[in-house]
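As noted in the main text, all predictions were made from sequence alone. Below is one such record, for ABC3 transporter permease protein domain-containing protein.
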Amino acid sequence: MAINGIAFPEISYGGMKFQTALYVEVNARSIYIPAITIVVSAMAVSLFPALKAAFVTPAEAMRTH
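Prediction:
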């Protein structure tokens, strides 16, 4: 971006200088653990409504709502 006229100097805060580039590491753990957590959470949250709906007869559900 400095070529186009916008300079990105080093960021300083409280006398400490920080890099302007961020380096990331993507590995299997950073993908699978959040995915498994979301799936397990969704299953746990949907369990109670599913069990409640499983034991309601259709006629009773139509009468109530």
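The mean pLDDT is 81. The helical segments are 28-54, 58-64. These features were considered when defining construct boundaries for the mutagenesis experiments described in Section 2.9.
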